[in-house]
Structure prediction request, 685 residues.
Amino acid sequence: MGGSLDTTDESRSTAGATTRSDHPVVVCLEDVTKIFEDAPAVDDLNLEIYDGEFFSLLGPSGCGKTTTLRMIGGFEEPTSGRILLGGREVTYLAPYHRDVNTVFQSYALFPHLNVFDNVAFGLRRKKLTKVEVARRVGSILEIVDLPHYEKRKASQLSGGQQQRVALARALVNEPTLLLLDEPMSALDAKLRRQMQIELKRIQSQVGITFLYVTHDQEEAMTMSDRLAVMRSGKIEGIGSPRDVYDSPSTEFVATFLGASNLLAGTLEAASGALSSVTLTDGTSLSVPHERVPALAGSTTLKVGVRPEKISIGVAGTSVPAGHNALRGRVRVSTFTGVGNQYLVDSVSGTELTVYAQNIGQELAPRSGDEVVLTWPIEHTFAVVPMTGSNDEESTNDEE
Amino acid sequence: MSVQDRTDTAATSRPERPARRRRKLGRFVLPTYSWLVIAYLVFPIALMIIYSFNRVVGGLQQVSFSWNGFTTQWYRQWSNVPGLTSSFWLSIRLALVSTLIATVLGTLLAIALVRYRSNKFRGKVAVEQVLFLNIAAPEIVMGASLLGLFVTFNVARGFLTLVLAHVMFSIAYVTVTVRARLSGFDRSLEEAAYDLGANPLTTFRLVTLPLIMPGVLAGALMAFALSIDDFVTSNFVSGTAPPFPVWVYGATRVGIPPQVFVFGTFIFMVGIAFAVMSIVLSRKKS
Prediction:
């Protein structure tokens, strides 16, 4: 859990503040729907990706992210909707007529060709001269840090090297857009972290727009300028990793992207910039008005706060101004080195997770201690309670 | 506890001795069995090769199985029997042409069978059944029915009818072999080729075909071998010029010229050469 905390800090410093809406749109999906058999894999999707950005589609398996990527690559045709690439409609265009290249999940290196011929494959289709092909292959192998590997067969390379070759083979064509379909999934954790940094470096070096598909939220946050969280063929949250992390728009996003404490409550009248939410036990919490989602008639919602935003203090500690407070009792206290992790049973009945960083001034409440949890109001968000496949199933059972 | 231990050790040590004996026996049985199988398979061929060097006594030039002394006469005079030589060349031409046609058609059929599900490929199940029938049906039935067909439609029997018949019985073998190779084929390799700007034809030429080539070659070899030694069907559909096996069969009634053994030895040696080549090639790859 400490790891995911670290990455959010990193992404904040590297990619947090970029807004790219002034850049030209490279890919535009308009009302794209893809139906397999009878179930929609992608459901009325709208998406714009801007020039030069590193964009991630994030979601659990079966959420439609890979289908979306395959439609942009030309390997699947949408059931309805339009796909535009650099302003030109490509919805039903064959993959070999699109200025898009793909890094496949399995790498799909040609096993009968050596590294040079693999990388040169796309250039040779464009009828470039031998000299030009050799020059470009050489320079891209330099960029992916695989010089002098030209004569090797794909089977003689390690997983990480194969991935670099797959990347080089796609990048050497200098496409408008590079699609990456979970390229890290076959690598071990250490190599994966290394390749994340490498991939980010390569992207900034070549300046090509990347569309990255992954189910790994840490990976998506580490690398992306912007990301979209998908569920059941729809986008549930989109923006910079920091925006999506700090102001998740749905319960799914709040729990899928990092950890969240969610407390059920009802929305009371707003006063100025703050809305007030009453929890089941009567505790009142404030939420910035702009973070309260549209509720469509109902007043039930969930108030959320990230575990690392909460300060833990002994019962009776005064609550600073502009903070929310919640009383509770520590159930489990764990020392993790970088900090302490607490599981706190709150008075509202919900269990909360709290991370406190080890900065040398440790109060360290023990299990059984009465505590007060406080956090700044600006770090409070509210989401509509999840209605998803699970809920539908349970209603079916009742019938 | 100690009693338990003792029974445990006794239980484990007891079956150890028979197991060891069994292993010793196994070390002896398997090689013996293997050599017996090899001897059984090779003996007739070895006999043929040996007797291709046999001197012939008496006026008629025909093989006899009494050893009269070593000679290379039949190798020097390999083409002295006109009917035999022309039937051999006919067989070679027939095998080459029918292999080429059967390999192309069989490979394309295998790709179609692997690629398309029966909702897109109407009649796929029927094609699969016919392929199986084609392999399983007795050759005598196919030969006889082909003869009936050609006679009914008044097709003159000759090279054309031979090619038609040979393509017909080898196509299923090619399809089965290529299909086995294709079943492990990673479709994303073709998608990668499309992705890199190769149209379907280029993709087939540069990616699919090279990767299934071992299967295609194996299928072609099988088709060639089937064609070159086919007797039953060929006997029905050949015209006045019989292919090699049919000619040899006809010759047995009047006496086999020793050159038949020379051609037999030659065909066998070519087969051996192919087998050795394929072993060397596969060793080189791994």
